[in-house]
Design brief:
Blueprint: H1 16-28, E1 44-50, E2 56-62, E3 64-71, E4 74-80, E5 90-92, E6 95-96, E7 100-103, E8 107-109, E9 112-113
Parallel strand pairs: 4-7, 5-8, 6-9
Antiparallel strand pairs: 1-2, 1-5, 3-4
């Protein structure tokens, strides 16, 4: 049984035994709200390097965030940068709005949540 009025035509091609699961997954990832005006700020990509002393230093690259939608009341944001994000890279977020999450590499330091 569909839980959405947004049932796509391609759903009719999914086998009946899988249709409910596919519909639920589709419903959960449809943006449920307009882009919030309260956005994460100060999002930076930290890329690790070893200096001549063998210590890890980070090169910092600014990121922008793109609203990906809402899932179970949580606003999902994607960090976007012109560099490939690799294992070991981290994000640093200066401000994270309430009920928000930034996806990308692991967060380097806890963001300051207001609200």
């Amino acid at each position: 049984m569909s839980t959405s009025n947004n049932t796509p035509e391609w759903l009719q091609q999914v086998p009946e035994s899988m249709r409910a699961d596919v519909q639920l997954a589709y419903d959960r990832y449809i943006p449920a709200a307009a882009t919030p005006t309260d956005r994460p700020t100060g999002v930076e990509l930290l890329v690790p390097h070893l200096n001549e002393d063998g210590k890890t230093i980070y090169t910092v690259y600014p990121c922008r965030v793109v609203y990906r939608g809402e899932l179970d009341g949580m606003h999902l944001w994607q960090a976007v940068n012109d560099r490939w994000m690799k294992p070991g890279d981290k994000l640093r977020v200066a401000y994270l709005p309430p009920h928000s999450q930034v996806t990308g590499p692991p967060i380097a330091a806890p963001a300051v949540a207001h609200g």
